Structures are given as structure tokens and as C-alpha cells.
Write a sequence for this structure.
């Protein structure tokens, strides 16, 4: 038995680390591939270090590109990895292009695929992530789900129920493991604000940041909010580029910073008065921490954060955003419940299921792992994202 874990973009690290660490604890042979979809220090390396993940064994260095090129480059390089290392199981998480690319390769190489965070659906195919989710799920053998609606979605799409395993939320495992340390670091002090005395904002969806008619009014309402509650805004590289192109200015009460590492950001969420975001994972993190969340989107693939948690969809409508902020400042927000199985044990449940599924294979000695030729190993300096597969 040899397990291949794949990470590539920022949210993958939090989702796979409980699985990688649990496999390691149980002595199950594994190796870690990093596609290089995200490559900036604070989008990649910091997460690996802070989460105690082993250094990736293989770095594909695909970097940024159009969807087709990025996906194709990952596929070409990952196919070589599979052919040379011969894993018996590929594990991928979430809904990013790296997830889709390795799912396609694993399926065509007839290698069973496990999908961590399966079954989520926004029912909005204008989102690239929705396409990635649907395709990955339909190519997977082990589908690990985080909420009941995901189980229902998969069954409705005809996935056999014995493939679906409701295990809870790995991202919440990672959060529970690190939150005390994150708070002890008091990251809000860097911005000169007090616990519960600030809003935290993230914005990176192409649908929000690529269109000037959306991002301009959004920034205007953020400026307005910041006069009542300072806004801390770690800016995603894509958003920074769009803001620069537009020459968009924010008021001094909006504190701009680059992408932040995991612990700093988690500490900031934990003590925020509220969070405004268009991220998927942050909707879950705010529910887990019982922090009010205004989601700047018209839909969510994570409905449990609304029905049971602290999340509300406000889209990009200034009226609804302002109304939400008023309610939060008046202390009128709902106090959320913890969704079922968001208890910090999802990684353990996943590895239990893998052991059951693998059966006797786990008892056979580890085959000698082949050396991967022509593929760069994870090195010491900052990776440049240069593609090292076939060009
Ligand atoms: C990706 C995921 C998205 C996820 C997000 C988390 C897809 C389709 N999208 O979006 O689901 O929520 O990651 O952050 O996979 N860039 C850098 N440095 C980096 C990485 C990216 O500067 O380390 C810039 C590049 O200009 C790049 C742009 O950000 O073109 C977008 O990066 P990309 O990985 O294509 O998508 P994200 O918007 O990050």
C-alpha cells in the first residue's frame, strides 16, 4: 500500500494535513506531492511549516496560468509521478484546479481516488470550483463528506452509497488543533486594534474582483463600514492586481496587508467582531468559532453554515451588507450550533475508512518507491513556480 497525497493551493493544506499526519502516526506508507498552483511564501510554504506537514516529496512547480493550461500542466507532470511511484491510492482535497487535474490522471491510470470534502454543491456552474467538485466526485472511490447535504447531493447524482463516508470536517480538525496557539499570538496587536474591535475581510473570487462594476461599489461600502469598525483586509494577489489596475483607494481605517500565514489569520478570525468574505472555507471557520460571517456571494456550497451556523449570504448588495453590519453591531446576530461531526476527529475517521477499504494490502511490505526523474524535489529557497514537467 502506498498513498499519494496531493496539495496545491492554500486551502488544501488545512484540509489534508490531518489525514497526512494520521497516516504517518499509523505508519502507513505515503508521499506528498505539491503541484505548485500556489507558490508565494504566504500562500504555500508558511502553511506547510505551521501545520507541521512533512516537506513535499515532489514539487511540480506549475504556477499560475489559464484554467486549461494550469490543469493540463498538473496532469502532465502528475501522470509521470503516478507512472514512476505507482501509488495504490491518491488523496486530494477541496475544489481547486489541482484537485480536478489529479482526479483525471488517477482515474485514467486506474488508481483509486479519495476526495476529502466531497459532495458540496453551489449549483452554480459559472464557478470553476463547482465544475471541479462535480468531476472529482464522479471519479472518486472514497468520498469523504463534511455535512449531510453533501451526502444527499451525491446520492441524487447516482454515486453508490457505499462510496460515501460522512466523516466531518478536516479543516475544522486543523482549526481546533491550532486555535489556542493562534490566539496567544495576539495578531490583532500588529494592526493596533482590540479583540472584537475590528472586521476581517477577504475577497478573491473572480466574479467579485474581476469586474470593476462589482469591486468598486464593494470597496466603497467597505470604506463606509470601516468608519464604524476598522477593517483588516489581507489582500489576495489576484485582488491586489485588480485594485492596482483600477487605482482603487481605500480609507486609512481599512488596513491592507498581503496574504497572511495560517496562525495569524486564524487568530484574527477568532477575535473578530465579524468577518466579510467570499471564501468557502472561511464560512466554515467562522461557524466553528461562532463568529458572525457575511458572505459576499449569492450562493454557498456549505449550507450548514447558514442553517446551523453564523453565516448569512449578502451578495454584493450594499444594503444587505450594511443591514448585516448594523445587526452585528447591535448584538443581534444568531449564535450558531456546531455542525454534526465538526469535532476535530475527521482525519482519524478518514484513515479508519482507508484502513478498512485497503484491508490486507496494508499488511504487505512497502514496494520500493521508484525515483521520479526530471521532477524537482522541494528545495530550500522560495519556489518560483517554474514548470518542470513536459512543456
Ligand atoms: C484558487 C482556487 C480557489 C481557492 C483559492 C484560494 C481554483 C480554480 N481556484 O483561486 O477555489 O478559493 O485558490 O486562494 O483552483 N497568485 C500569486 N501567487 C500565488 C498564487 C496565485 O500571485 O502563490 C496570483 C496569480 O496572479 C494567479 C492568481 O493569483 O494568476 C490566481 O491564482 P489561482 O491559483 O489561479 O486561483 P486563485 O484565485 O488563487
Amino acid at each position: 500500500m502506498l498513498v499519494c497525497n496531493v496539495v496545491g493551493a492554500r486551502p488544501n493544506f488545512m484540509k489534508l494535513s490531518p489525514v497526512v499526519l494520521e497516516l504517518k502516526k499509523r505508519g502507513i506508507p505515503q508521499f506528498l506531492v505539491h503541484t505548485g498552483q500556489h507558490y508565494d511564501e504566504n500562500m504555500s510554504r508558511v502553511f506547510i511549516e505551521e501545520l507541521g506537514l512533512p516537506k513535499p516529496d515532489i514539487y511540480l512547480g506549475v504556477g499560475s496560468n489559464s484554467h486549461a493550461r494550469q490543469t493540463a500542466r498538473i496532469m502532465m507532470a502528475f501522470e509521470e509521478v503516478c507512472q514512476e511511484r505507482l501509488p495504490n491510492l491518491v488523496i486530494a482535497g477541496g475544489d481547486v484546479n489541482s484537485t480536478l487535474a489529479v482526479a483525471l490522471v488517477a482515474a485514467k491510470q486506474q488508481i483509486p481516488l479519495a476526495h476529502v470534502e466531497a459532495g458540496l454543491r453551489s449549483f452554480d456552474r459559472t464557478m470553476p470550483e463547482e465544475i471541479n467538485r462535480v468531476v472529482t466526485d464522479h471519479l472518486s472511490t472514497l468520498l469523504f463528506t463534511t455535512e449531510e447535504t453533501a451526502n444527499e447531493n451525491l446520492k441524487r447524482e447516482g454515486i453508490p452509497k457505499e462510496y460515501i463516508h460522512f466523516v466531518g470536517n478536516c479543516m475544522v480538525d486543523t482549526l481546533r488543533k491550532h486555535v489556542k496557539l493562534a490566539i496567544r499570538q495576539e495578531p490583532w496587536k500588529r494592526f493596533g486594534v482590540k479583540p472584537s474591535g475590528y472586521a476581517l475581510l477577504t475577497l478573491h473570487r473572480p466574479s467579485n474582483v474581476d469586474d470593476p462594476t462589482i469591486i468598486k461599489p464593494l470597496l466603497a461600502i467597505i470604506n463606509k463600514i470601516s468608519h464604524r469598525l476598522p477593517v483588516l483586509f489581507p489582500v489576495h494577489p489576484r485582488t491586489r492586481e485588480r485594485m492596482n489596475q483600477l487605482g482603487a483607494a481605500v480609507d486609512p481605517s481599512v488596513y491592507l496587508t498581503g496574504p497572511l500565514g495560517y496562525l495569524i489569520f486564524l487568530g484574527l478570525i477568532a477575535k473578530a467582531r465579524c468577518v466579510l468574505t467570499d471564501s468557502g472555507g472561511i464560512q466554515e471557520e467562522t461557524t466553528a468559532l461562532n463568529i458572525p460571517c457575511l458572505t459576499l456571494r449569492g450562493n454557498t456550497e456549505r449550507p450548514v453554515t447558514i442553517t446551523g451556523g453564523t453565516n448569512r449570504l449578502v451578495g454584493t448588495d450594499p444594503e444587505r451588507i450594511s443591514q448585516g453590519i448594523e445587526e452585528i453591531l447591535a448584538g443581534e446576530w444568531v449564535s450558531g450550533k456546531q455542525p454534526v461531526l465538526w469535532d476535530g476527529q475527521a482525519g482519524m475517521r478518514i484513515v479508519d475508512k482507508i484502513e478498512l477499504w485497503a484491508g490486507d494490502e496494508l499488511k504487505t511490505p512497502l514496494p520500493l518507491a521508484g525515483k521520479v526523474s526530471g521532477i524537482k524535489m522541494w528545495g530550500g529557497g522560495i519556489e518560483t513556480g517554474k514548470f518542470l514537467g513536459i512543456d
Notes: The domain at 173-329 is CATH 3.40.50.2000 (Rossmann fold). The first helix runs from residue 10 to 25. Residues 9-11, 37-40, 43, 64, 95-97, 128-129, 204, 237-238 surround uridine-diphosphate-N-acetylglucosamine (CB under 6 Å).
